[in-house]
Amino acid sequence: MTSARIMHWVLLALIPGTAAMVFIWGAGILWNIALTSFFCCAIEALAVFLYAKPGAAVPSTGRLHAIGFHLQDCTALVTAWLIAICLPPYTAAEHLLLAGAAAIGLAKHAYGGMGRNVFNPAMVGYAVVLVCFPQGLASWPSANAVEVDVLSGATLLSEFRYRPGLTTSEFDATYATIVAGQTFVALCFLVGGLLLTIKGLIAWRIPVAMFAALGACAVLGYDQGSSLSMGSAWFHWTGGGFVAAAFFVATDPVTHPREARQQVLFGLVIGIFIYAIRAFGAYPDGIAFAVLFANAMTPLLNRIGARRTLEARTSG
Asked: 65-104 pLDDT, tens per residue?
C-alpha cells in the first residue's frame, strides 16, 4: 500500500474510539480535531513551501504542486487527530497551534520531513503542550454531565494516585461512571486497533509487548487492592489513552524498530516506562514520555538488528 492508503485506513480505524469520546465528553473533541487538523495542514504547507525545490523529490516543478503532494498522504491529518484526542475538549486554540507547530514543524520537518523523523510527531506536540500548560490540560469534564466537578481521562489516573486512603474497590465505586466511560472508550479504540492488525498495517508485536509489560508491572504493584495499591492491570490498560497509544502511536513505522525482536523490546520498554511514570513520576500518565524515550532507542535497536542479521548471513 502507498503511505496515503495506509493513513486512510488509520483514520478509519480511529473513528470508533473518537466517536466514543464524543459520546462521553461531547463535541469539544471534534473542535480539537477540526482546529488541530487545520493548524497541522497549514504548517505542513508552509514548511513544504519554504524548503521545496523544483524537481527535488516531488512529482512536479512547482511549489504548489509540492504542497499538494505532501498533503495528500494524510500524515499531517493523522498527526493532528492523534494530538486532538489526547487533549481535553475545547482546548484553547493557542495550545492546539503550539502542539501542531511542535509536531509538524519541529518533530517532522526539522528532521527532513516524512520518513526521516526520529520522534513520533504527535507525541512531541502533545508533550510540549503538556509541559508548557499542565493546568490547562488537567481538567476534563465529567461524562455526560454539565458540571465539571468530576474528572476523567488522565486526571482519573491522578485521582487514583492521590486518592485519600481508598481501596481500589472503593475508588471504582466512587468513580464508577467515569471508569465505565473510560473503559468504553478504550474498547472502541481496541476495535480500531484490531482492524489495523488484521489488515497487517501495524507491527502487532509492539502493542502485545506493551500490554504484557504494563500488565506485569501492575500485577506486581497491585497489593490485593489496598489503599496503597498501584492499580490493577485492567485499570492501567483501560485508564488514560493506553490502548490508543499502543495501536496508533507506538506502531508508527517510522519511529519503531524494523526487526521483530527489537519491536518486542521496544514495546516492553514503553509499557514499563508508562507504569513507572504513572506510579512514581510527576505526571499522572506517562504515555508520551515513554514513547519518546523508546523512539530515542530505535536507531540503536535497528543497528543491533542489522548486525545480527549480517552475522546470521555470514555464519550461514
From this structure: 777 777 888 999 999 999 999 999 999 999 999 999 999 9
Domain count within the chain = 2
CA distance 174 to 166: 9
- End-to-end Cα spacing for the chain: 33
Domain termination site, one of 132, 163, 196? 132
Same domain, 116 and 256: no
Decide: residue 177, CB within 10 A, 0-12 exposed, 13-18 middle, 19+ buried.
Answer: middle
Alpha-carbon Rg of the chain, whole angstroms? 20
C-alpha angle 112-37-19 in degrees, rounded to nearest 5: 130
Supply the mean pLDDT for the chain: 87
User: Residue 86 belongs to what domain range?
Assistant: 27-132
Nearest 5°: phi and psi at 114? Answer: -60, 135
SS3 145: coil
Residues 39 and 166 in one domain: no
Are residues 188 and 117 located together in one domain of the fold? Answer: no
pTM of structure: 0.89
Per-residue pLDDT reduced to its tens digit, 14-29: 999 999 999 998 899 9
